[in-house]
Amino acid sequence: MDSGVLRLSSLPKTWLFDIDGTLVKHNGFLENGEELLPGVKEFFENLPNEDIVILLTARKNSQIPALAKFLQENNIRFNHILPNLPVGERILINDCKPSGLKTAYAISTKRDEGIRFTLDIDKGI
After folding, report:
1. Which of 30, 38, 64, 122 maximizes the CB count within 10 A of its CB?
2. What is the DSSP string of 39-96?
3. What is the CATH number of domain 5-105?
């Protein structure tokens, strides 16, 4: 990722997002209610419609309906929410395409900073 731009192919993608501290304020739901972090709404507006969005969280099943409602009210689209996950590292392993196209990315952000990069779909990749 160069200068705050994530450049990807035009192939349909699967996005995995942690929720707390990445999309919404970490533990905000325990304090003053859910709060979207900076850049999240704009980033989601630019995700291609054919992409799949999977949200990851350590929250309990009982907390998911209120979270899903908040996300839907704020136009944060998702296909699945996976709750009850461990609080440790999240690891993604994937193979490269025979063409050499990189098929796995990991972006670690500072807690509660939001999304500070833009998406560029390059039809030439």
Report:
1. 64
2. THHHHHHTS-TT-EEEEE--S-GGGHHHHHHHHHHTT---SEEE-S--SS------PP
3. 3.40.50.1000
